[in-house]
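Entry for 3,4-dihydroxyphenylalanine complex. Fields follow.
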Amino acid sequence: MLEQLDQNLKAGLAALEKLSDEEALLQWRAEYLGKRSTVMEAFTVMRDLGPEERPKVGKRANEVRQALEAALEERRESVRQAVLLQALETDRLDVTLPGRPQTLGRLHPVTQTLRRIYKIFAEMGFQVYRSREVESDDYNFTFLNMPPHHPARDMVDTFYTSQGGVILRTHTSAGQIHAMREYCPEPIRVILPGMCYRFEQISARYEMQFTQVEGLAVGRDITFSDLKGTLSDFARRLFRVEVRTRFRASHFPFTEPSAEMDIECFICGGEGCGVCKHTGWLEILGSGVVHPNVLRHGGYDPAEFTGFAFGMGPERLTMLLHQIGDIRNFWRNDLRFLEQF
Ligand code: DAH
């Protein structure tokens, strides 16, 4: 038995030398260390031996088993190393290959314009006030001095929802009332940016969705000249030139008096061209002195408080800044357009 064990050890070690992959090692393990292997059998046979031989065989069998196990471990490690080396050799990394480019997103042109607008008004002390896109009829119309059946309601085509009195706001002016009710009786200086919706016939000039930036100042002794000064200064800062502005009388139900502001056409310098429709002027916003009824709906006493408000379309401004001919480009999501900014 002892001799058999020695032979088995020798044979095992010799066989192991020739193996070079994990699978073969597993087979080898079954053969030399498995249940039916010589070593394991020795443990069974041992029980029938006499008291003199039994410990000798037991000891030897243990030694052989340990030797085989140790040899297997060693071989396994060198096989692993060899496989790794080979992988490193064949899958060699070419560090000179150019990497995959990371494509960077960018800000939407309207967002860029919005940020310029925020910055300019921030410098004049106006905070950004966010208000909702889904509005009630009251906030969008009634509180802005357009009660039900007021003819001015016909000037915009509104998206109504199946819930009575709930609409998509047609202008950011609706937010004026939210701001007033939140701040009253404190003075206010805010701009209200955001998306508005109108059921328009879409064309190069009109879209169903567009952003607006509303402005609202409420306080004591605020006059029309504050409005004029603020907005003329804004135009100069946005267009970065000594741009001339003019105010034309207009009508909005929520302001009295009301005015639209034009800037001198910077394409033709006021001479008249296709962009300004040969008038020399470009309209950029509506504005006015806040109507007493609106102040009242916001909680302010018109005998004590006055204010001015304005509303502009950042898409229009972006079109002027970049000479873009069609407003539909903005929300069409065509990368060929967006990547230019
Ligand atoms: N809400 C108006 C519109 O959508 C724009 C506007 C005009 C806003 C005059 C104002 C304002 O605050 O005073 O056409």
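NOTE: The chain has a mean pLDDT of 92.
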